[in-house]
Amino acid sequence: xxxxxxxxxxxxxxxxxxxxxxxxxxxxxxxxxxxxxxxxxxxxxxxxxxxxxxxxxxxxxxxxxxxxxxxxxxxxxxxxxxxxxxxxxxxxxxxxxxxxxxxxxxxxxxxxxxxxxxxxxxxxxxxxxxxxxxxxxxxxxxxxxxxxxxxxxxxxxxxxxxxxxxxxxxxxxxxxxxxxxxxxxxxxxxxxxxxxxxxxxxxxxxxxxxxxxxxxxxxxxxxxxxxxxxxxxxxxxxxxxxxxxxxxxxxxxxxxxxxxxxxxxxxxxxxxxxxxxxxxxxxxxxxxxxxxxxxxxxxxxxxxxxxxxxxxxxxxxxxxxx
Length: 322
Fold this sequence. Notes:
This protein is mainly α and 322 residues long. The protein is built from 13 helices and no strands.
């Protein structure tokens, strides 16, 4: 507990100093770019916060709940400190908004343009990303089962998978727009292409993960192909499948946003980013980036949580004591 108290003391001191520094840069005279006192105090506060985080990271507790809170607090406080430095540097050094808006302006934009951001989120994420993600992952999974059953498909599709993973999205997206129109189905088609082959390759690899001894044991029971698939090979492939789902959760959002650069109705995250950059509204661009980052992280977290729930029996989790 002595380590925890020391960490809290360092961090509370750094927090108090950070509040004073923020108040100073927002209300002080317009000479901060030349004020060495401000930057020296920010540097000292950063060293103190660094010491507090190092001490908190070294904290170990037998109470699992306390340990989990400490493990979560380290990255959260580190991220907040980076935001603090961003705010102080952009405001204190009078950095032009067209180059880098401050976090305060971005947060204000998130609230004042909430209706526009919500419409963009609905168009890009709820329609294009989720539809393309579901179709691409399901298609890749079913074709992997078929390729596992038909050997020549496995030998023919896997090289194509490697080739498709190298396709430039900036070349595929305009073609999909021509085929499926300007609305969200063309973006979903791009997402399908980006997510199909990662799921195919990972599922095929996962279906081969069961050991020879396990397969021979089922053979001694005269198990059919489908009985072996359901009771042994698919459970063994679950970590590979979830690995593909996690990879695709980020690829899908990137694909949909980039595809919107090549034609879309007047709504969508990619459309908003491309148009607001032209208008020099960088705070709106950053608001879209923040929204995309939060949505992508939450999506990835949901998939990881499902993986933890469904594959808790896997040796990789048992070895970690989870």
